[in-house]
């Protein structure tokens, strides 16, 4: 993440008592594992908020489940088995942010791939798998598209299908580029055509992230980290 973004991760869950009452209400009927991940990822977010000088506040799901943030903040959360994380930045310094974590494991059903990967992306995955077998590239592509969506949605406020963007993974640099195949949102007077982000594989985890900075290139591709 850029230095002005506060990032906090956790590998163990916090007590459910850390939830605000209105947050606890949201997951009151959820299974125990869902309640724990919900509480822990919000604990990460509040620690990150504190590092930026913001007081703790309830973080409630809004439209399509996107978390609501206090005025002046932009953030993203993610969780998977054994891992939770949040990243938060000031709205004056950040236009958008998206982050996703997955286990470094193949997608559970090979049939899923045709719903998330375009034909050219599937060819890319096959090549990467033969050259770098230690990474589950299908899961990495899924994660990158999740980060794209989390960055896209607060800006566009409409759904983006997995097949409506084309992601290119760059193993040499740990980066990826995402080309939007539908009209992008207008940010700072520029219609975005895509995003760039970073990825890492460590400790059995895949992590992807995009941080959209206030400087958008003339070509409409947003800089990211």
List keywords for this structure.
single chain; 225 residues; alpha+beta; 6-stranded mixed beta sheet; 3-stranded antiparallel beta sheet; 5 helices; 28% helix; globular
Beta-strand residue fraction: 25-35%
* Broad shape: globular
- Radius of gyration (CA) equals 17 Å
Task: Identify low-pLDDT runs.
Answer: 216-220
The mean pLDDT is 94
The secondary-structure class comes to alpha+beta
Number of helices: 5
Helix content bin: 25-40%
Count of individual beta strands: 11
Characterize the largest beta sheet: strand count, sense, and whether it forms a barrel.
Answer: 6 strands, mixed
Order of helices and strands: EHHEEEHHHEEEEEEE
Question: What is the CA–CA distance across the termini?
Answer: 6 Å
Q: How would you briefly describe this protein structure?
A:
This protein is an alpha+beta fold and 225 residues long. The chain contains 5 helices and 11 strands.
Task: Explain what this protein looks like in three dimensions.
By secondary structure, this protein is an alpha+beta fold. Helices cover 28% and strands 28% of the residues. It has 5 helices and 11 strands; from the N terminus they run βααβββαααβββββββ. The chain has helices spanning 21-26, 32-51, 113-116, 119-131, 137-156; strands at 6-10, 73-80, 83-90, 96-103, 165-170, 175-180, 186-187, 190-191, 194-202, 205-212, 221-222. Strands 4, 5, 6, 9, 10 and 11 form a 6-stranded mixed beta sheet that branches. The chain has a 3-stranded antiparallel beta sheet with strand order 1-3-2, covered by helices on one side. A two-stranded antiparallel ribbon has the order 7-8. The longest helix is centred in the first third of the chain and has 20 residues, at 32-51. It is globular, with a radius of gyration of 17 Å.
């Amino acid at each position: 993440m850029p230095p002005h973004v506060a990032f906090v991760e956790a590998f163990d869950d916090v007590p459910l008592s850390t939830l605000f009452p209105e947050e606890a209400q949201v997951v009151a009927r959820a299974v125990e594992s869902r309640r724990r991940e919900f509480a822990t990822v919000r604990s990460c977010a509040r620690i990150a908020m504190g590092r930026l000088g913001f007081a703790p506040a309830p973080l409630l799901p809004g439209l399509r489940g996107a978390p609501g943030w206090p005025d002046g903040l932009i953030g993203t959360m993610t969780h998977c088995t054994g891992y939770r994380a949040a990243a938060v930045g000031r709205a004056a310094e950040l236009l958008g942010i998206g982050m996703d974590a997955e286990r470094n494991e193949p997608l559970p059903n090979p049939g899923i791939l045709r719903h998330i990967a375009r034909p050219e992306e599937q060819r890319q995955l096959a090549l990467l798998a033969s050259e770098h077998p230690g990474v589950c590239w299908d899961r990495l592509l899924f994660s990158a598209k999740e980060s794209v969506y989390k960055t896209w949605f607060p800006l566009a406020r409409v759904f983006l299908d997995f097949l409506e963007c084309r992601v290119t993974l760059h193993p040499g640099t740990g980066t990826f580029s995402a080309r939007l195949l539908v009209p992008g949102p207008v940010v700072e007077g520029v219609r975005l055509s895509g995003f760039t982000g970073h990825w890492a594989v460590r400790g059995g985890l895949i992590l992807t992230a995009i941080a959209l900075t206030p400087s958008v290139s003339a070509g409409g591709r947003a800089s990211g980290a």
